[in-house]
Amino acid sequence: MKGTVRAGSSEGRSRAGGVIRISKAGRTGVVLSRGKASTAGRVGKDSMAGSVIVAGRAGVGNMVNVGKASRPGGGIRAGKAPRARGEGNEDKARRSSRAAGERASRAGGATLAGPAKSRLRQGSAPRRRASARGRRAAARAKQRTAMRRAPKPAPHASSPQAMPASGAGPAPRQTTHPQGVVVPAGREGAAASTGSANGVPPPAAEHAVQAAGPGGYAAGYRDGVFAGGEALVAQHIPPDHILPAVAAADLIAAGFRQYAPSLTRLTSPHEMAGHMMAALDAQRPLSVVRLGDGELLTLAADTVLPATEVQELAPFLPYAGVPCSTPDIRATLAEAIRGADWVGVPISRAPTFQGLLFPVLRHFGIDWSDLKLTSSTINYSLHQSRLLLPMLQGRRVLLIGSRAAELGALLQLHGVQVTGIIPAVAGMADIPRVMQLAAEHTFDIALVAAGIPAVVLCRRIAGELGSVAFDFGHLADKLVTGELQL
């Protein structure tokens, strides 16, 4: 369609018609939508069919230029502009296109039918998607700001660094992640690769915080601090009273001073190394076992906690050697703890660590005060204090566990005499076979890295074979992979 089309006014209030000029390369389907006043539009050389020019409050004869990059379905709204000089054609334009103007201006907007309306919807879809992307970007920016402003959890005070013991070397810190994850307290083994409470959640839990929505973590943290602090204090304040200018932290500090005499010091790494070397020198049996969340959750199933809850909290238990916690397994494990010479217990006060330790011991009739206690991370503490290798050098060593062969090669490079290797232990049911194989070797000390069965194996090796047995845990993996160096 070529030439000039003049559109008349569809309303009596309009003073003049508009002009749409279709250039040589123009296309049909251009619609002039009439508002309060008519408008003139110019469609550029490369404009496409379906372009819509919507008249606003514009003076007669205004020119709206649609550039070369116009696309189907694009809408242009004419702004307010000064009145054009050429108003002499007003009557002629009104007479020639009154009918077309009335059809185009119904309901104050463009009326498109068939393909033209489809193209208009298609043209608006990218704008809607762009708008949605903009809203999401703004939400993410708001969320990042909230995360930066969120308060950070206070560090645990009940750590070896906070309460040093005589001769104690550095021990691994036990920290609580903002999402409640504790690392590396308790048995680090199974959890490290299967996502237990003492393994780091992939990918580093920040994505979980982001998934909570803008400000979700900050608000949740504030609510949690209040519920675990000031709200508990409020339960002890009588009606119609307040406790001015005394924070929950102040009350905790005052109460802690009252209970300070109940503090129990754990055997330090240097002290533990001394006991083990004395037993080795005297060739007398000694067992050192460690309790982490795996052992405690195994004992807690159907005793302190429902078995279904334990399954949810500890999906790693099959990997750690306990596909299902049965009464026989719990009884065997409890008896090994009761008879061990030294028991490593978690420093962490998290729910699946100390939160389970004392209820579980109480349930099985084990008086914790009768146990000789050290930290459940004593294996790492001995290594970090540079006490492990000197204790092994000059001794005959039996290695038990899935990394036994690789660990044996590494120890031999450092002058340790490895006299026996027993490969992976297939759970608690495999303990009799492992004991039979251990009896065939001559050794002074056994390093057992076998998950939860290691507690029972260490106790039985010391009691039945008369040697020193140490629950070595995933320290074996970290030494073999080079994460830690001898």
Brief descriptors of the model:
486 residues; alpha/beta; 7-stranded parallel beta sheet; 18 helices; disordered N terminus
Task: Give a short synopsis of this structure.
With 486 residues, the protein is of the alpha/beta class. The chain has a seven-stranded parallel beta sheet, with helices on both faces. A four-stranded mixed beta sheet has the order 1-2-4-6. A three-stranded parallel beta sheet has the order 3-5-7, with no helix packed on it.
- Beta-strand residue percentage: 5-15%
Amount of helix: 40-55%
Overall geometry comes to globular
Uncertain runs are: 1-90, 107-120, 149-212
Description:
With 486 residues, this protein is of the alpha/beta class. 40% of the residues lie in helices and 13% in strands. The chain has 18 helices and 16 strands. The protein has a seven-stranded parallel β-sheet with strand order 12-11-10-16-15-13-14, sandwiched between helices. A four-stranded mixed β-sheet has the order 1-2-4-6. Helix 9 crosses helix 12 and helix 16 packs parallel to helix 17. The N and C termini lie far apart (87 Å).
Question: What order do the helices and strands come in, and which of them pair?
Answer:
Elements: E1 3-7, E2 18-22, E3 31-33, E4 40-43, E5 52-54, E6 63-66, E7 75-77, H1 90-104, H2 115-149, E8 175-176, E9 182-183, H3 188-194, H4 206-211, H5 216-228, H6 230-234, H7 248-259, H8 269-282, E10 286-290, H9 293-300, H10 307-313, H11 327-339, E11 342-345, H12 354-363, E12 373-375, H13 378-384, H14 388-392, E13 396-401, H15 404-413, E14 417-422, H16 431-438, E15 445-449, H17 453-465, E16 468-471, H18 475-481
Parallel strand pairs: 2-4, 3-5, 4-6, 5-7, 10-11, 10-16, 11-12, 13-14, 13-15, 15-16
Antiparallel strand pairs: 1-2, 8-9
Helix pairs in contact: 9-12, 11-17, 15-18, 16-17
